[in-house]
Structures
1.
Amino acid sequence: MSMAELTGQPKAQRILQYAIASGKVSHAYLFSGPQGSGRMAMANAFAQALFCTSGGDDACGQCLECRKFEHGNQMDLHLVEPDGNSIKIDQIRELQKELSYRNSGTQRKIYIMQRAETMTLQAANSLLKYLEEPQSSVVAILLTENGQAMLPTIRSRTQLVPFMPLAPEVMLQTLAMEGFPQLSVRAAVHLASGLEACRVIIQQNGFAEMRNVVIQLGKDSGTRFTAAMLSAHQQVFKTSLGEQPQLLLALLVLWYKDMIHFQAGRQEAIVFIDQIDWISKHAFARPVEGWVNCIEHTLEAGKRMKAHVSPQLAIEQLLIRIQEG
């Protein structure tokens, strides 16, 4: 896929296409942005464009080098991923060894490093020495969710290419055109930063079912405490949905936000649009501050889970707090 075919990151696309068109390709790039924002897809598209022999500012998809790339036969492209939880110095040494060999006929060698912030200090220092004395034929593309987590000395020797979270409206339109269910899409675009992450959420087992459970919990949590507790036990903790408690909480936050959207007259922003009749009758059961408190209680439950409180206990305590107002 060419860079022009990728949507949602126009600034990154402009930076990279200008570099190719002007002949000012840097020896190293730092693609920094949230998970799901399309960094890896853009890295692959940029790499293909760099190998392309058509002379344009993007991959043509037709030349020999483009066809080799698309079929996974580009020997001068190297991918570095964490070995376990980190990228280790031996991986950097092996990469440098590979890059020292003669090209297989292309003008460049390119390496893409995923989760570059996981490099050990020794690995980062080894890479730094390589970046300080760059080979003209080698281009590095470092991918990270947090550019500030990289060594300042590495940041200073790379060109930053920022990736922004995609706007929910952009993702909604794109995913709807791809044929994904509208109700699932409306929720997923508020849970992820990019299209690929949204697709993963929508396609995972139980997402639609989890959405239905959250609707029931949302309706019951305010006035029918016993029913809410029963739903949580039977539909969540006695099923596989109990394995994704953070997803449940994230959807529940969207449910309470919908009440605020309705009160403010922002019906176009409502996620659970199929529940608009119920929402219209109950959104004013609490003032905006009351719904904000529900959101804060839900976020607090998520923090408690991360602090190793059992999900069942955290959600039971959440339902009690919401009932109490």
Note: The longest strand covers residues 138-144.
2.
Amino acid sequence: MAKNKDYTQLATEVVAAVGGKENITSVTNCMTRLRFTLKDDSIVDETEVKAVKGVKGVMNKGGQYQVIIGTEVSEVTPFVRKVLGISEEDQPVEKTDDGKKDTVFNRLFKAISGCILPMIGPLIAGGIIKGILVTCTTFGWLSDASGTYQVLYAAADSVMYFLPIIVGFTAGKVFGCNQYVTAAIGAALVYPSLATALSGEAQLTFLGIPLTYVDYTQTLLPILLASYVASWVEKFAKKIVPTMLQLMIVPTIVLIIVVPLSWLAIGPVMNTVSTVLSDTVVGIFNFSPILGGILFGAFWQLMVLLGLHAAFIPVLLNNIFTMGYDPINAILGLTVWALAGVSLGYALKMKDPEKKSIGFGGMASCLCGVTEPTIYSIALPQIKCFAAAWIGGGIAGGILAALGGKMYTFAGDGLFRFPAMINPEGLDISFYGFIACALLAFAVAGAITFVVADRDK
């Protein structure tokens, strides 16, 4: 077995370059980036950070200072935490009580990403399993009445079905309150016997106030607001309850207040907001699907690079939760294939073995859903190659939008996006159209890159 690489020097230099231990509030990572929450990002010397061997670039977006490492970032993060002297569990909830004024957008983005990102892995896994199951039933390899199907479908659908419980748990940490209490609030929203009773003919009331039935399975916004309210109720309760009684009495107060409030007001209001939000966004997209497909297909990766994609994340998630599909996210998956084509075109054009390796490595990374190596190693240094991706993605995006392609569940990008395009009713144009458009984006971007890429740069 190969020995794990030692990233102590890289971690030490990065920590020093972003202002040292005293300037770092917390650190996490995504697939390619170290994400620092800093007390003061104005003191960071960006040139010094970029000069660290192993750093591919930096971004300061969404309230986080992001140091781009590459696909080995998950191995680097523990070394950074070791240098900082903290563990993953020890990291404080991200707040702005240090006197630094934060924007409403940054606070909202931090809250949503903090609640959603921890469960992205299981959500994607569920989407892949659902795609496999639909394929198996479509071709008659498996019956949806079989025990095998039922068990695997439960594994795939459990995260989505019980989303309020899982989001409630992560929201508790984000909002700085008891995670198990916020998870219990989420459980109360999907409690089977109460949901069954409310969906019946008899009208139920709470202290004389009528209760309205809403199906909160696979919902996001109601539990987010309920958890936020719970955090304030908990803070108030701790002020009035003696310390020796807080363990029992504070959760009691929070549940007694927030659970009824969630059923009476928070849930119905936020469920309406979710529906209106999805209807509005999809309505705008449907007003001119081809134009929308061209623009999203061409420039989504540029929006990701600039950090502007953060505003769309809640909307894209909400579309799946509310409608069961998302036409916009279907287009976005094509942008990854366009960058994979750029990588291949670059690799074929280059004569230098190291540059060829960068190209083929970037293509492999894109096909696994990670585009940063291609963006920072090829597309940005040679902007014409980035333009090739815009053209390939824009053409493919316009065609898929015209075909009415939809994404039906969560999955990864690249090759892992295919299961998400499978309609639960069976294979249709969303699946076949996406494959054809992905190959088109790949071919067009690759061909243009082969022509415009500069061997000497």
Note: The chain is about 65% helix and 5% strand.
